Amino acid sequence: MTGLVAAERGVGETVLVDALPEFVVVAFAAVTHLADPWFLFALLAVGYWFAGDGVAGSPRRAGATAIAAVTCAYAATALGKAWFAVPRPPGAMPPADVPTWLPALLSGWYEAQVLSDGFGFPSGHATGGAAAYLALALLYDRFWTDRARYLAAGAVAVAVAASRVIIEVHYLVDVLAGLAVGAGTVAVALWLAGDPRVRRSTGADASAGPTAELDPAPAFALAAVVSTGALAVAVAGGHTGEVVEAGIGIATGAGGALGWRLVDGAEPSVPARVAVPALAVTGGLWIGAYALAGTLPVTLVATTAAVIVVVALPSLPGRVGPALGGLRGA
């Protein structure tokens, strides 16, 4: 199937990018962080934990569904990269052309942005960015106006996609495919979650809006299934990096589905005294998962545990408080 997407798939965009001033390229190297996986999941977790009724009728259901949608998007990316297995542009390979005027402290950062290994189609940043910002715009439907949310989401998603081409780690077709896949997976995830806007039903509670009855568990399950397919394709092709990414996708989908079983969807915002240590724990688990990527079972366990904690956290104060009260009474 690699013949469906050519290894040399540029349409002349490299010539245009090479003509850009260096400061523009450096600026877009910073923009690309807006769709780094760590940034997106941190953003989604913060929204899920802290959002109130002012941003969504059912903020916990909205936030968990956004996480599930992005998990589906990354699963689709892993499958696409393993399936097509086409390289990135030559500009993504070392050595990096670092501007001489950049301070030493920023030179290493810039080099890390403009050098990328792995396969190039579709773009993970474009896919994840489109999915995350579109999901936030659709699900946090009481924040700003519809027009403002959609314009902001589209602007950020397009800027991230452009950044991947400008720093020459993807071709234009990679990011266009990523934008399409990201938007498509959001539509599928919302349909699975029961969003009445996608299912064209009128049974939602008008006072709570379209997020009132969302159930993210089916979308999390879909992400695990698609990631399992990606794992099979990656193993068959001998693509070690994609094996790890697919494994993390399975763990994220499974962890999300398991974590949601502990939540009823009507919990209040998570208190900061609970969220701060939880963020430290989940961050440590994520770092450990990637640091130990050579030991796949450890990576899967760490990722699953981190996602369960993230998704189940809103229910923790309600569960721990009564338990502690019982212990004091005893």
UniProtKB/TrEMBL annotation:
Pfam families: PAP2. Keywords: Membrane, Transmembrane, Transmembrane helix. The chain crosses the membrane at residues 23-50, 62-84, 119-138, 173-193, 219-237, 243-262, 274-292, 298-316. The keyword GTP-binding does not apply. CDD domains: PAP2_like. It comes from the Archaea. Residues 65-190 form the Phosphatidic acid phosphatase type 2/haloperoxidase domain. InterPro entries: PAP2/HPO, PAP2/HPO_sf. The keyword Transmembrane helix applies. This is Phosphoesterase PA-phosphatase related protein. The lineage of its organism: Archaea, Methanobacteriati, Methanobacteriota, Stenosarchaea group, Halobacteria.
